[in-house]
Amino acid sequence: MYRYDQFDHRITAERVAQFRDQVRRRLSGELKEDEFRVLRLQNGLYMQIHAYMMRIAVPYGMLSAKQLRMFAHIARKYDRGYGHFTTRQNVQFNWLKLEDAPDILADLATVEMHANQTSGNCIRNTTSDEFAGVAQDELIDPRPYAELLRQWSTFHPEFAFLPRKFKFSITGAAQDRAAIQINDIGLQAVKNARGEVGFRVLVGGGLGRTPVIGTEIADFILWQHILTYVESIVRVYNEHGRRDNLYKARIKILVKAIGIDEFRRQVEADWQFTKDGPCTVTQAELDRVAAYFTAPAYEQLPAADVAVVALLRDSKAFANWYKRNVKPHKVPGYAVVELSLKRAGVAPGDASAEQMDAAAELAEKYSCGELRVTHMQNLVLADVKQSDLISLWDSAKAHGLATPNIGLLTDIICCPGGDFCTLANARSITLAKAVDERFDDIDYLQDIGEIDLNISGCVNACAHHHVGHIGILGVDKSGEEWYQVSIGGNKGSPANIGKIIGRSFSFAQIPEVVARLLQVYVRERHAGERFIDTVRRTGIEPFAEYVYATPVPQDEKLLLPDYDLLKIGTPYDNPYYSPRF
Amino acid sequence: MKIIKNKTVVEDSWSVLRLGEADTADGINVPSGKVLVPLKVWQAQREVLQHRADIGVWFASDERAEELQSDAAKFPVIAVDFPKFADGRGYSIAFNLRNRVGYRGELRAIGDVLRDQLFYMQRVGFDAFAVRADKDIQDALNGLADFSVSYQASTDNALPLYRRAERGVAV
């Protein structure tokens, strides 16, 4: 993976010093909160319900074992012993103090990490394919381009105060695992007739209050020109994006308002000034960056391992894990392994310091010392020998990292929600816990098969509920938490927005609602058909009809006061739903 | 009043003319002395004002650099107003004035101009800063030196880092 040179180190160190001084001036009162807020957000620091939260960038999801150990260190030293992996492949710490933030950034800098631009109205961390470099369906490895984007966008002087946040996603594969259609700019690698690499460029995708699928602005931009081209897009947006209404400030609204053709015309008019200019990427620079992403020295191995084949036959538990958590690798004899961060009783995407250390050790022992964070909030070991799978499974199990549920119902995508987040209308991780408890039969989950359940605590859609096969959105009705349910969304290949099935439900009704949706699926499905395919074929009507046919009972257990340990506004020192307390 | 100019705190005698609610661009009386007038006033009163050497213009954040074109070279000072420091349009206005319109005179940031934005402002082409009056202008000077190197090109450096320095390579 990419390693810092002297310039990366210097820029990162100067950023730490800058923020340390800004925090000092905030604590002394020289900086008022409204002046400081923007500065701290651009260093990933939020003020949440209980404490400060820091979002640390994991550029395009790539992580070394050493970096993951630093997260464990931060969890122990500055937080409450755990961290939370996010849908943008980043990591968040929830229980921080402002005074510690500069030291945390300094600690991160020692392992070539930062929290730059992980919040605020600027260009955020670029996301990418969690299987980059090892996927069978890959045209090119997108990571060198993602790193070029990281450097171009880091402290870009013109784009630190955009109308609103701005997100890039990039993929080099046929199957879109990077959700490029729901980003402000989505880049898909393609080759032209001459075999040259370029990018198909989508613009104006996004979720939030107004979910929109990105529109193609260019079908092929040669790789050398991609930075000048996207710079022109961002410049036109900076000049013309709305600033009078927070909810209409994303680029998608501008593109809709003036139309893709006029938007393209403006971008190309601007691009004429920079195209072929000094910001055209050189072959030498691409080669320099790409050299950090060369494949490891793979061994010649048999495609299948004898012991694995035998255990698949003899152990149902291993077979379940293999079926869900092991993915094909482009090199025979190797596999991609997902470590699940979804297990009963733990917030989706949370990992304890001990689990982080354990995952780091697994990476060093079995996968070249590297991991990836997925947008599904799990971890990936990308280069595992088939012959190591059994011992890896044993170790992962021992640390609670082998729940055999990748892609299943309990692999819930979930934002922090009302338990932590000041923006939320409703709890999401407590609801995930309730759903998880209701569906704890692995055979049933395997039978239901692939399904994305996404729970967002508010319309900002951090858990991408619009593109969940089942999407649950927390809404506020006269100060009470309610949940709107949609079905039929999909995050990629092709992406589409789910449809709301009807009036909203209470917290304690949701597990039953999910159960009814699954009953309709089981009733209606054709052989081999996934939930999403059935919804696409039948429409939402049979589902909505069945869910609302009889009153939906509340799960009494969820109404008990001791179930809900997570009242909104829990003070800093109160216990919190998690094994860490 | 004092401003930062070419990385030094200096006395400055330009005043900024702002339109009141009752004022119109063609009706307002432009006082004598060094005055920065709104772009709209320049456009409305160009016939008269073009004979004065002590006139500059300022851009509101919703105006575009291209509106000035060949007139730009006439002005000893052009300013860009930041109604709020988080309104980032002024950065693109400055960039375009320098790189598209080709303006070479003094380019001044006015309005909600604060220490922690000066580094970026300097990069896109500002060389003068009317720091908000309630802030310590000496302290604000420090903001110009937050970073000693930047990845991307801008007005201050036409080349991206990899074209101006030997970057590290994988070991």
Structure in words:
The complex is a heterodimer of chains A (581) and B (171). Helices cover 35% and strands 17% of the residues of chain A. In chain A, helix 1 packs antiparallel against helix 4 (101-109) and helix 10 (306-314) packs across helix 11 (316-325). Chain A is globular and about 60 Å long. Chain B is an alpha/beta fold and 171 residues long. Chain B is built from 6 helices and 8 strands, in the order E-E-E-E-H-H-E-E-H-E-H-E-H-H. In chain B, strands 2-1-8-7-6-5-4-3 form an 8-stranded mixed sheet. The longest helix of chain B is centred in the middle third of the chain and has 11 residues, at 89-99. The model of chain B has no long low-confidence stretch (mean pLDDT 96).
Task: Give me a quick take on this structure.
Chain A is α+β, with helices and mostly antiparallel strands and 581 residues long.
Keywords:
heterodimer, A: 581 residues, alpha+beta, 5-stranded antiparallel β-sheet, B: 171 residues, alpha/beta, 8-stranded mixed β-sheet, 8 strands
SSE topology sketch:
The complex is a heterodimer of chains A (581) and B (171).
Chain A: H1 6-28, H2 33-41, E1 45-47, E2 52-56, E3 62-64, H3 65-77, E4 82-85, E5 91-96, H4 101-109, E6 127-128, H5 143-153, E7 168-171, E8 185-191, E9 197-203, E10 215-222, H6 226-240, H7 251-258, H8 260-271, H9 283-290, H10 306-314, H11 316-325, E11 326-328, E12 334-339, E13 350-352, H12 353-366, E14 370-373, E15 379-385, H13 389-398, E16 413-414, H14 429-438, H15 442-448, E17 453-456, E18 470-477, E19 480-487, E20 490-491, E21 495-496, E22 499-500, H16 510-524, H17 531-538, H18 541-549, H19 556-559
Parallel strand pairs in A: 6-7, 7-8, 16-17, 17-18
Antiparallel strand pairs in A: 1-2, 2-5, 3-14, 4-5, 4-13, 8-9, 9-10, 11-12, 12-15, 14-15, 18-19, 19-22, 20-21
Helix pairs in contact in A: 1-2, 1-4, 3-12, 6-8, 7-8, 10-11, 16-18
Chain B: E1 2-5, E2 8-11, E3 15-16, E4 35-38, H1 39-44, H2 46-49, E5 55-59, E6 77-82, H3 89-99, E7 106-111, H4 118-124, E8 128-129, H5 137-141, H6 161-164
Parallel strand pairs in B: 3-4, 4-5, 5-6, 6-7, 7-8
Antiparallel strand pairs in B: 1-2, 1-8
